[in-house]
Amino acid sequence: MTGGILATPTPGITPKIAEEEGLVLESAILAQKILKGDISIQIYISETKDFQVGGKKVRDRTYYQMRSGSKIQSEFGNMARKSFNDDLDEVNFRSHTIGDPIIEGKINYFSVKDFLSLDNSIKDIDSNYKIMDGYAMKSFGSKLKFYAVVIESDDGKCIFFKKYGSKTYMSKLLGVFKNGKVNKLSPGEEIIVFEDNFDFMVCSGTAFVFRRNGFESIFSEELKTELKGKIKPILDEIESYEYPKFKIKNFKEFKDNINGRKAGMDKLRRAYDGGFFEKVSMEQIERENEILAIENRVKIIKDSEGKSSIEYEPKKANTLFKLIFKHMFQDRMGNWLAAEVTSPA
């Protein structure tokens, strides 16, 4: 083990053995066992650079190990236990597939090997990091995107991740309030603000997501690429639909507009997986559209044979998805499912 040894955590924490659909999450049990033991901690910050290769955006990360004192290590240890042990009886675990929407209010988990970008990040933290020094710190600025806290015990290792907020890095131009007065920072001094929670954790090959926004912010470009790959066959299938099925006349404009917009791709994927396009027809969409105020309606046109289709307008994208999700509901596991629609009497 590396780093300073911390005191055994406060007794009385009762870990929950998470089980869903008969699958016992061995990684969760191991994580709780690690956090209950004597632990050592190392802190890493990530420098992230984006550049273009062949017209595509590529993201490169460099990890720096930071020297840290025993008090801050102790605080990180307490935060880790809180993230993964508090109120687990009220929070359900849910299996997650990369590219699917993350369900709030649950700890979403997935296998690290299913997400190459995260797998590579963990390998870099383990063996391909640099030691932080003052020179490296000065070059960071807005390139600080997240930090990782590695917690080890004799039972194994967990890595906790947290994204940086927009104001968590402060340059030497700022002052600091200390001992009752404001002082200018000394030459070479930098301030990084560490928050009191984590966004997700990795243990024994399994990732556990506590906060969707943090996880998606850290891997925004990579998740968008994953989602584009998953959404392509769905878009191809929807493009082939003919009346009376849901149909968009100017489908290329719809496809170009939805691709690259994570929120739109998420919604389309949810609707498809939930069976919307199998169960809901253009006739039903038309009925719901007529109920809306005229200025809010999507544009529906008919051909010479009276067959309807939607003429997609980017400014009405939200309205279109509202019409779609009006026919859907969430089950107890947080999955979106299409409701069976009956014809009006």
Low-confidence stretches: 1-24, 341-345
Major sheet size, sense and barrel closure: 9 strands, mixed
Cα-to-Cα separation, first versus last residue: 71 Å
* Count of DSSP strands: 19
Adjacency order of strands in the biggest sheet? 5-6-15-14-9-8-3-4-7
Summed over residues and divided by their number, the pLDDT gives a mean of: 77
What's the gyration radius in Å? 25 Å
Indicate the structural class: alpha+beta
Strand and helix layout:
Blueprint: E1 19-20, E2 23-24, H1 26-36, E3 40-53, E4 56-66, H2 70-85, E5 93-95, E6 107-111, H3 116-127, E7 130-131, H4 134-138, E8 144-153, E9 156-163, E10 169-170, E11 175-178, E12 181-184, E13 191-192, E14 200-203, E15 206-209, H5 212-218, H6 220-239, H7 251-258, H8 262-273, H9 276-279, H10 282-291, E16 299-302, E17 308-311, H11 317-325, E18 328-330, E19 336-338
Descriptive notes:
This protein has helices at 26-36, 70-85, 116-127, 134-138, 212-218, 220-239, 251-258, 262-273, 276-279, 282-291, 317-325; strands at residues 19-20, 23-24, 40-53, 56-66, 93-95, 107-111, 130-131, 144-153, 156-163, 169-170, 175-178, 181-184, 191-192, 200-203, 206-209, 299-302, 308-311, 328-330, 336-338. It is elongated, with a radius of gyration of 25 Å. It has eleven helices and 19 strands. It folds into two domains: 19-218, no CATH class; 223-338, no CATH class. The model is unreliable at 1-24 and 341-345 (pLDDT under 50). The longest helix has 20 residues, at 220-239. The protein has a nine-stranded mixed β-sheet, with helices on both faces. Strands 1-2 form a two-stranded antiparallel ribbon. With 345 residues, it is of the alpha+beta class. 33% of the residues lie in helices and 26% in strands.
